Amino acid sequence: MDVDDVINPLPPLPTDPVSYPQISTVPDPIRLQGVGSTTIFGLNNRFSMDYPTVLNGKVAEEEFQKTVYRINRILQYEISQNVKWLLCGCFCCCCTLGISMGPAIILSRNTRNKVQKELSYENVRLYHKIGLHWKLEKESLDDSHLRHYVLVLEFLPKEPILYPD
Fold first, then answer.
1. Do residues 63 and 126 touch, judged by C-beta distance below 8 A?
2. Which of 41, 51, 153, 154 could cysteine-pair with 108, CB 3.0–4.6 Å?
3. What parts of the sequence cross the membrane (predicted)?
4. In terms of residue numbers, what domain contains 92?
5. Contact by Cβ (8 Å): 114, 74
6. Are 55 and 127 within 8 A, CB to CB?
7. How many structural domains comprise the chain?
């Protein structure tokens, strides 16, 4: 019998992560592309309300569609206002040396902020409680320098309660 056996009678814990139970992997996030007819500064005026089958058993189809409907309602109003200011800015661009484009750029930023605020409200209201997270993310188009915004619904990882402290 060794001195270490008397002091620490428990067997050592395994240090390799393979011996611990495996936690299920987090599925890939769901990306909703814009399907509207108008895109200004990368933000489309409508997103698809089709219910992804990956969400079966996680969130009700009505709740998902209500969230996307709220986002679409914000975008429909704001993008129509942005189009008016963009056209006005383009007509006056030569006379004002480009300063007239400022309101359209500021309105586009305000639109993104309104969409992000609505998404954060929806996250707090429902989606964080069921392990999901909405966000608005900028994504590049196919092999070009153009970028557009997509709605991303991520699955939040579960807390590993089986690992020792």
1. yes
2. 41
3. 83-107
4. 28-42+58-155
5. yes
6. no
7. 1
Using only C-alpha atoms, the chain has a radius of gyration, in whole angstroms, of 24
47 lies in some domain: no
Amino acid residing at 56: N
CA dihedral 152, 157, 158, 159 (to 10 degrees): -130
Whether 5 maps to a domain, the answer reads no
Given a contact cutoff of 8 angstroms between Cβ atoms, the answer to whether 22 and 159 are in contact is: no
Identity of residue 89: G
The pTM is what?
0.73
Query: Could you report the per-residue pLDDT of 102-143, keeping only the tens digit for each?
Result: 777 777 788 899 999 999 999 999 999 999 999 999 888 777
